[in-house]
Amino acid sequence: MLSKKAAVMKGDGIGPEVVDSMLKILRECSLESEIILCEAGSEQWEKNGRKDKSYIPDETMKILEESDACFKGPTTTIPIPGAPRSVAVTLRQKFELYSNIRPTKTYDRLTPDRKLDCVCFREATEGLYTGIETKITDDAAIAIRKITRPGCDRFLNSAMKWANHNNMKKMVAITKRNILKQTDGIFWNSAQKAVEGTDVELSEIYIDNMAQQMVVAPEQFNGAVLVSTNLFMDIISELASGLVGSIGLIYSANMGDNFAMFEAAHGSAPQFAGQNKVNPTATVLSGAWMAQYLGEKEIGDAIFDATYQVINEGKTVTWDIGGTASTTQMTDAILAVAKDKLSK
């Protein structure tokens, strides 16, 4: 197998800790793909005197352009006017990573009375996250929600490919079409076109009702691909992560036609940096997914299986999921099980 290249950005806050956990597992499981470390995030931006227009240095962007995929550790986006755009949004738009994908599944030990198994598909290059805003007066501003038919078509077709590959028979489109008639009208039309001629059942639910239904009866979405525009699915996927038990469990990918970026769903949590206490699961599983994407499926599968086993056993897990283990202890437990699976 020809070695592929993956650029890895450790990020800010807890990023370096959890990314080191992921890299340790991949390396000791004998990943053949080349890992190239590079910098991105607000901490390096601050350290370099805030002189760059982006959180991603030019040398890092060059490495990314020459790689097959990348891994982004959690990064901090400073919420002040004039600060750079987030690393994630920048890379999604740079590489046309239009599908943000979060498989969301409960663990038997963590939520014995609640079962959720779905995938959240979020359009990642349009909507309010295009960042098109204008100030009208000192006291008023407008943000533009840009939705295009080509953007919706490619996104919903990718969701259908996921459904077909994983034998999922339900697609739920989350909109607010009774209010946003034009923009969500385009999205709904593309959803209808995507399922034409298939046996996938399409339904529509408004965003406010969706939030309620996820809380009161999440099981109705088992086996479903949930699809929505950028902001709506950003909210619903976060809600879904709470139902699983911890945002620290949720892994994700941002995929386009020729490139993919993998990342944990959680943020940089600087208040926990350096304490060796955060849950490495989301980062470890995102790294396992990256291994699969790079063609090293056996390694990725072993890490997924090992992580689920360690969490469901509950003996060596972090505080957020009911344990007392440190980040490194949980990492080592996952690594031991993964290596054992690969040796058989």
Q: Any idea of the CATH class of the largest domain? A: Alpha Beta
Name the shape in a single word.
Answer: globular
Distance between the termini: 21 Å
- Specify the structural class: alpha/beta
Number of strands: 12
Relative strand content: 15-25%
* Helix/strand order, N-terminal first: EHEHHEHEEEEHEHEHEHEEHHH
SSE layout and pairing:
Elements: E1 5-9, H1 15-28, E2 34-38, H2 42-47, H3 58-65, E3 69-72, H4 87-94, E4 99-105, E5 117-123, E6 133-137, E7 140-143, H5 149-165, E8 170-175, H6 183-195, E9 201-206, H7 207-216, E10 224-228, H8 230-244, E11 251-255, E12 260-264, H9 281-293, H10 297-313, H11 327-343
Parallel strand pairs: 1-2, 1-3, 3-12, 5-10, 8-9, 8-10
Antiparallel strand pairs: 4-5, 4-11, 6-7, 11-12
Helix pairs in contact: 1-9, 1-11, 5-6, 7-8, 9-10, 10-11
Task: List its salient traits.
40% helix, Isopropylmalate Dehydrogenase, globular, two-stranded antiparallel sheet, 344 residues, ten-stranded mixed beta sheet
Describe this structure in words.
This protein is an alpha/beta fold and 344 residues long. The protein folds into 2 domains: 1-100 and 252-344, Isopropylmalate Dehydrogenase, CATH 3.40.718.10; 111-244, Isopropylmalate Dehydrogenase. It has helices at 15-28, 42-47, 58-65, 87-94, 149-165, 183-195, 207-216, 230-244, 281-293, 297-313, 327-343, and strands at residues 5-9, 34-38, 69-72, 99-105, 117-123, 133-137, 140-143, 170-175, 201-206, 224-228, 251-255, 260-264. The strands form 2 sheets. A 10-stranded mixed beta sheet has the order 2-1-3-12-11-4-5-10-8-9, with helices on both faces. The protein has a two-stranded antiparallel ribbon with strand order 6-7. α9 (281-293) runs antiparallel to α10 and α10 packs across α11. The radius of gyration is 20 Å and the shape is globular. The model has no long low-confidence stretch (mean pLDDT 95).
